[in-house]
Amino acid sequence: MPSRRYEELDAIRGLAALSVVVDHHLMVLPAIAGKALGPLSRAVTAFPLHILWDGHAAVLLFFVMSGFVLSLPFHLGTNPVYTRYLIKRICRIYLPYLVAVIGALSLYLLVSQGGVSGLSRWFNKIWTTPPTAELLLGHALLVTSFRNEVYDPVLWSLVHEMRISLVFPLLMIPVLKWRMTSIVAGFTAVSLCAQMAYRMVGNSYGDYLLTVHYLLAFVLGATVARYRVPLAEYFGSLSAASRLAWVATALVLYDFEFVLQGVSVLHVGPADDYAVFLGSVMLIVGALGSRLAGSALRSRIPVFLGKISYSLYLWHAVVLLTVVNLTYPKYSLVIILPASIILGLAVAIVAHRWVELPSIALGRWLVAESRRLDPRTRLTILGVNPVTSMMGEAEATACPSE
């Protein structure tokens, strides 16, 4: 199957990023973030309305989609060099991230009130921590364990994204060689072991163990990419009623944490995450296999949201924190929150144009230069490239951090 841009997946990514934006804006409200719910807020925070702003599920969907897109060069049979892949990933993820961190820290120092009375505890945990050398170093390195929520609450996912990006070529070995059942069973076992270890060691290595847990999401995405043609054909062969049931099931799984919350046995351990992983896989297959859904997703607005999704993901909370600190309580949140969403979209467009695209261009230029200098001998670790024949050069994007 020839390489192509999966615009329907771009669109899903954009809509999911928008749901994260809505999530964080609603979390400013004490009644939402604190779960002190009246009838209206109970309805908003329950399935099915919660699908529209399930930020955590959206991030797990991003992880699955990252695995899908990053694996495509492997499945298409290209054999470039690991170091070229790494250059592109650093430019693609890290450089826009670094600009956003600098922006968030600068705005915190300029406008933070040190906490805003009357708003949620979630909101007041952010922009209330003075910078220290340890915090700054953690943000600069990205892949270490540090308090990544204090200046921009979305950064936690980029920590896992970057760590997994570094080892992704190794993950492709079993994806390419094993059967589907072995891949799923093997990495589910790895995830369960990581979860059990997390409960034993607590926070000591918990952040790193969560990364091990999230390997499953990336591998599932890569596996869907491997079988994308038969999976899409299978979905397309279903009756209309079966396709509708498929999508409904996918949405239930996607928002599973908020389905039958009173039945605790359904939500034991990582069950909610596993449900989201499966729901994400089903949504991707549905988007690939449905002409109607694919056509709708490839329309102008969803695709545009997909293009700016990484910048929107990076900057929306920074904009929210800035606007609220500057205008509340002088103005009502009824005015502030919608204005913040609109301004966040505008900032994302600017950041995409002037930060994200130049970072991508820099990565391509560096790779072109490395080719000119023969990177197979110059851009290797200790003179040996352990994955030269295995690495792909993913140009497309999948996750907001893609």
UniProtKB/TrEMBL annotation:
Segments crossing the lipid bilayer: 53-72, 93-111, 154-176, 183-202, 208-227, 234-254, 274-297, 309-328, 334-355
GO MF, any single term: acyltransferase activity, transferring groups other than amino-acyl groups
The keyword Transferase is annotated on this UniProt entry: yes
Keyword set, alphabetical order: Acyltransferase, Membrane, Transferase, Transmembrane, Transmembrane helix
Signal peptide segment: none
CC terms in the record's Gene Ontology section: membrane
Domain Acyltransferase: 7-352
Family annotation (Pfam families): Acyl_transf_3
Transmembrane helix in keyword set: yes
One record GO biological process: lipopolysaccharide biosynthetic process
Name by which UniProt lists this protein: Putative acyltransferase
UniProt organism field: Singulisphaera acidiphila (strain ATCC BAA-1392 / DSM 18658 / VKM B-2454 / MOB10)
Organism placement in taxonomy: Bacteria, Pseudomonadati, Planctomycetota, Planctomycetia, Isosphaerales
